[in-house]
Amino acid sequence: MPLDRRAFIRGSALTLGGALSLRRLPRAGAAQPTIWDRRSLQRLRIWDLHGHLTGVGGTAAERIRWILRYARRLGIERVVFFMGLRFRRNPAPREFRRDNDDLMRALEAAGEHALGFVYLNPNYPEESLQELDRCVRNGPLVGVKLWVAARATAAGVLAIVRRAAELRVPVYQHTWYKTTGNLPGESTPEDAARLAAACPGAKIIAGHTGGQWELGIRAIRRRGNLWAGLGGSDPTAGMVEMAVRELGAARVLYGSDCPGRSFASQLAKVLGAEIAPVEKRLILGANLRRLLTAALAAKGIPVQP
Amino acid sequence: MIVDVNVHLGRWPFRYLRHDDPARMAKKLRSSGVGQAWAGNFDALLHVDLDAVNHNTALWCRRWGGGLLVPLGSVNPRLPDWQTTLLRCVQRHKMPGLRLYPGYHGYQLDDPAVGELFRLAQQHRLLLQVAVRLEDPRTQHPLLQVPDVNLAPLQGLLKAFPRVPVVLLGALRSVSTRELEAMMDWGPLYVEISMLEGTAGVQRLLQRVPRQRVLFGSHMPLFVLESALLKLMESELSQEEQEAIRHRNAQVLLSGKKPS
Ligand SMILES: [Zn+2]
């Protein structure tokens, strides 16, 4: 490698001064395991931000039990699920209600091993707000999922995000920058950044870190109420290092996008990253527990940080 | 012990990578239980002087590998006198096989030159690797969008040259397991797991593809090595399946391919 990474980062920290706070320098060669076993993974207290019930057969309960069986093999303590038994890009209110019912049925079967976010459609703002109250304020769900029905800059989104902020739950906003072209309602991380600026009290997760994470991280780095969700892209080396360098480890969240993605490939992004062990623990679980503290407390779910 | 059939030396054109240096690569592989790695060279994607690239691949493997790195050369059958490049891989560098990049080199597998390449591979007892995908098309550089390789012509090639084993690299997000199941009848076709996704992916792959055809591949240094390692832990695999994928299949494949 022609370039000494540490020298580069120190150099850029000097040049950029206080404009971007580089929270830490990656330390090379720190002794960390490269061969993991279940015990050592369990000790990391891994919470997974991003799971679905699609792509496998059976009832909601059967699906979640099957998925969690493999999560446990890799020592994952809890998985957050969202959306129903199939993916609907622009669901009508009765459809997203059904999806959320299916999700809540699955969660019942999973007990303490799973949590859920409510799936809403900003093209139906009134019904979405009602559903948010039904499933989060008065129900068991602990966050909001927004997908590709409308971009994060659309009018209906802001009302939902403001209400989520009042309820003190995070919003997972799917984001991608696709070289091959986004869907019409598909948000980019810049859309998410605009939303975060419009609602500074909200805690918003930029899903997939934008897919092209070098772009996504740039787009969200100046907004402190935006987190990077790592799940659902190929396990390319350097993603987590750059996220930690630019955002700080506290704003980076592990997630898998199971069962479409493997737990292995997505965990590997964090486990194989050249960052400190304490940063891995934050990204793999502690940050998510912190984001969900208020929601879990409101529902009387005890959690050790 | 693990045999990783898919690593690259050289430089990925779009990003600094932590292990894009032969010494660091070798150290990381060794400390992770990989005892042998089949190495191509990212420089082969865009360089035209593939003789120089292959020379470096062989040199780096010798200098830094200590028996760990097995060099695979690259030829582009669209270049003038690619045949001499192939012969140098065999005679000068003693390479057991070649890694092909039809996507990056801009040809299809039904190109007549590919038939000639297979003929020479059979004659010199080479194995062939075909890089079906190196990077998710959604994340590619807008000025270098490389489509996945269309594998349909392999059926005819494997029929005409049944003693040429073909290892598909990075195929498992573009080819479904159902399609693969049918393709296994075409001849000695193998896949590696670097791009395999989905919960319990390896175990689900083995429901359709015989374990003798599945190899360990990491796609290091572009991908994190831990991804492939943890896949073998995520799936519920028998001891036999573990051993077959970790090393035995690759060892059997290579043992028949040492050029004399
Ligand atoms: Zn997802």
At a glance:
Chain A is of the alpha/beta class and 305 residues long. Chain A has helices spanning 5-16, 38-42, 60-73, 93-110, 125-137, 155-166, 189-198, 213-220, 239-247, 263-271, 277-291, 293-298, and strands spanning 46-51, 76-82, 114-119, 144-146, 171-176, 204-210, 226-229, 252-253.
Helix percent of chain A reads: 40-55%
Q: How do the SSEs of chain A run, as a string of H and E?
A: HHEHEHEHEHEHEHEHEHHH
Shape descriptor of chain B: globular
Low-pLDDT residue intervals, each spanning 5 or more residues of chain B: none
Put simply, the count of helices of chain A is 12
**Total strand count of chain B, please?**
8
Instruction: Report the largest inter-chain contact.
Output: A-B, 44 and 44 residues
Walkthrough of the structure:
The complex is a heterodimer of chains A (305) and B (260). In chain A, strand 7 (226-229), helix 9 and strand 8 form a beta-alpha-beta unit. Chain A has 305 residues and is α/β, with parallel strands linked by helices. Chain A has a single domain (39-298), classed as Metal-dependent hydrolases (TIM Barrel, Alpha-Beta Barrel), CATH 3.20.20. Chain A starts with a helix and ends in a 7-residue tail after the last helix. Chain A has helices at residues 5-16, 38-42, 60-73, 93-110, 125-137, 155-166, 189-198, 213-220, 239-247, 263-271, 277-291, 293-298, and strands at residues 46-51, 76-82, 114-119, 144-146, 171-176, 204-210, 226-229, 252-253. In chain A, helix 3 (60-73) crosses helix 4 (93-110) and helix 5 (125-137) runs parallel beside helix 6. Helices cover 43% and strands 13% of the residues of chain A. Chain B has one domain (2-254): Metal-dependent hydrolases (TIM Barrel, Alpha-Beta Barrel). Helix content of chain B is 38%, strand content 15%. Chain B is built from 10 helices and 8 strands. In chain B, strand 5 (127-131), helix 6 and strand 6 form a beta-alpha-beta unit. Chain B is globular. The A-B interface holds A 1, 3, 5, 34-38, 55-56, 66-67, 70, 73-74, 176, 178-180, 211-212, 214, 233-238, 241, 258-265, 267-269, 271-274 and B 15-21, 24, 28, 31-33, 135-142, 145, 195-201, 220-231, 233-236.
